[in-house]
Prior knowledge:
72% of the residues lie in helices and 0% in strands. It has helices at residues 2-5, 13-33, 38-62, 74-88.
Amino acid sequence: xLLFEQLGSSIPVPFLVVLVFWLCIIFASFGLFAPRNATxxxxxxxxxxxxxxxxFLILELDRSFEGLLQVSGAPLALPWLNWANKEKWK
Length: 90
């Protein structure tokens, strides 16, 4: 039931800002010193896609009952409905 009552995000916004800034600095520094060829550009693209996908998944799984990836709340509600029906017929 704690999942239903949790309204806010458990990931602080300043942490996300620092994380994105840090990753931008790392990619910029690698980009400055790497040679300009197709292999390096493809590797940067794959790494950037991987990091952005990881951040997206972390943010999506933090809010599990809404967003693109959703978890059903029915398995959590079913025991409460069964308990309420048993109590009603006593």
